[in-house]
């Protein structure tokens, strides 16, 4: 290719320099904040979440209710599926233009706190704009990190074993609270032998389940700033899993990958799957059988290591309207009417006022309510371990590397090494 | 005007002889003093180019330069970028997943691009004949490209390539090989991705068709009089005459293949995974995972510029090669 | 066509149709699967091996009439249509101007600009996303369609500039030489001679632009903040749940409905592809 020599090259540099200057060189931290104030004292706040159109319809209804009671506050909505939500959120927050208030989860609290994205709502709570009383089962502590109030829970959920009830009944298995891993494995083997499908769908890659297993042994998946277990721990966990995949106790990972995004239980590859209790609804819409919830197996016959998880509402530190945002969150977590509209869409309502305002009538939601009530009654619930920044990345790596291992693409030793390498990069430890 | 074309065309029945360097050499001044002509051309050139130049300066150059800067920094999207020199690049070469992504991408480019172009050209030649129902076929063959990157494509593809579905059955019947479905198998899923790409041959096909329409019929008639068979007509007339378009398709399809993202991401799963056991972890997929899911935009930018260098090299080779096989009209005098 | 028919001609015609039908079967099988899928109940779609459902349902389509997330489906279509048509106009004008300059005018610095343009094709867009977002934010254009259209009017789509340029370079040079001798300027040559002759390339570009704009997901996702402004491609994703689980039936039905405008656009314009050189207006 011909070039016209130095003149053009210099011109190019000038051009590049000019647009660099226009950009302000760095992209970070040059936003103008979000939201706006009208001349008549009306304030507009932006609210974003992830979810489907069904959730959006419910939330729109709650917002209409809120705007009726707070005529000076207008709420603009924005929502996407989970992964797209975070892509957009990252871009907006990086550009300094995040939504004023948004749906959040435990794995992101510390991450976005470290990046100065989240507003400490403590001040608003102290000022009386946001009530932090009346939460169930200690949930008010759930969004706290290092004494800062970074998120307010809207609903609770917990890990559970989702089972195909028809298959379990035919195999003559009735899981009871406190059953042990030994009993669990025997049950899975029996299903494999008698029901023509695997027992479990692939528990070895579920980070939140391994967390429970570790907690039963006095450890945890995460500490405040790193991993709470050793290479030897994980080698044990995955060696057992590998044998289980080979013997058909766990479903063939290739088959599971093939029917994704359908779950292995609804796809009739496995009879049970560890997941969050409020995801049960998906199985009913995907599969033809009856699905139920079974307790988490234990090591000592008592301790499950469980805690309540939750979706939260967080505010962004750049919001120009912290007070209005706090009032909005307060309304969404306490107002009984909101609970009647939302149902169990984001988990069992977090506050007693909302919990009592809504009684589920359908089979699936009744089961979820009963399951969580039983957790409270048996007293197995423990406080949650805080997640370090990068926990979301470590979780994704855990799932992926476990799948590599199960498919035989890596030996257990290689898989453990790969996971630790990636986790250390992600957690910066 | 029309007569000029016809005269010119019939006057040169053979293929235009040779091509020029890229881009075409300025036309030789035939009238007026050379300086006045070139000054006028400069003015006209920059006037015609002004939207592009404005767009480049305003929208493209800045972000490109910014990403080049990020490539040498530790940039997590939130804190100000911190200069770390070449560390992103050394990290990259030491990263086994990066190497996997390079391998996967090269396989994909080497297998997928020629197949797709061959399908596009073959079907375009088929459709370039005046036959009944031609318009219907053209629309039908283009339909896959319309469905494009929508999520439903992923569902369809899984349905077609899964265990006991049509492809699996055909494979067992024809070759006696039982893979048990392609989309869950790390050794096979890449081929289902290639199949998805080849299936969407509509875009280059339409470009080929448009190119074929520009070939003057007189050339074929003259060749037929000379007794040239279909193969010779294709080789001596069609191919040289559509070579600018062929060059365009080869270049752009290659560039796009290196940058393939959407279908790999949709087909391969979600949330930091691109296929079982990273089997469809194409380059941009990994770049995306690092940049947006792992918040390592510095690393992702370094990856992007590495890709730019590699594809730039391929592009330069293609441009260099075109003087041997691409025939532009201005040389045919 | 002449009325002369010979056995050879019949054989050729038969072979042609057989060949076309064979390609058609392979190409359309997945499309037919999608159509069949849109009439299946939700739990029969993923992993289903059947082409058509045993008991076809129209629920998936009927649900669309209720709108998505309180927004009528027509809103999404209107928005997408506006953006797609706006993009077509922008690309046709701005890219053909640049293409003409590259193909037909010998201005100083052309090689450098051309190399820069090809360079813009080589960088994956993900790394440009954030700097571009910051840029539009500084221009206070977030949540406007300008973010999505501006580039189209400023010829940032190098693909189309290059495509049109390749076609213009295929046109006989004698045309503009003659026009120049008649005293025509570049604008006149561009408008009256080159553009009409490049109709196949322009139509092709129009079709691609329309489809790209229609299917664009990343741009609308990042830049549009209100559901009322969303496009069809964003609306489709509203069927996807928090767990990545979707209401596949409605999604497939909607993606088929979303296909119709694109198909109509293609059908309306493809006939101009049929007769390129032969009849395209040489009236200049």
Report what the structure shows.
Chain A: InterPro entries: Bact_solute-bd_prot1 (IPR050490), SBP (IPR006059). Chain A: It comes from Streptomyces gobitricini. Chain A: This is Extracellular solute-binding protein. Chain B: The chain crosses the membrane at residues 43-72, 106-127, 139-160, 188-212, 297-320. Chain B: Residues 1-10 have a biased composition (Polar residues). Chain B: It is found in: Cell membrane. The complex is a heterotrimer of chains A (429), B (333) and C (284). Chain A is an alpha+beta fold and 429 residues long. Helices cover 46% and strands 14% of the residues of chain A. Chain A has helices at residues 6-23, 53-69, 82-94, 106-114, 122-126, 165-171, 181-195, 207-216, 231-247, 253-259, 280-286, 322-334, 336-342, 352-357, 363-378, 391-406, 412-427, and strands at 36-37, 43-50, 73-80, 101-105, 144-145, 148-149, 152-157, 159-164, 198-200, 270-276, 291-294, 309-315, 348-349. In chain A, the strands form 3 sheets. In chain A, strands 1, 2, 3, 4, 7, 12 and 13 form a 7-stranded mixed sheet that branches. Chain A has a 4-stranded mixed sheet with strand order 9-10-8-11. A two-stranded antiparallel ribbon of chain A has the order 5-6. In chain A, 54% of the residues are buried. Chain B is mainly α. A two-stranded antiparallel ribbon of chain B has the order 1-2. The two termini of chain B are 18 Å apart. The model of chain B is unreliable at 1-22 and 24-31 (pLDDT under 50). Chain C is mainly alpha-helical. Helix content of chain C is 68%, strand content 0%. Chain C is flat. Chain C has helices spanning 7-37, 59-65, 73-104, 110-122, 126-138, 146-153, 158-169, 173-181, 186-197, 199-215, 218-223, 232-236, 248-274. The chains are: A alpha+beta (429), B mainly alpha (333), C mainly alpha (284). Chains in contact: A-B, A-C, B-C.
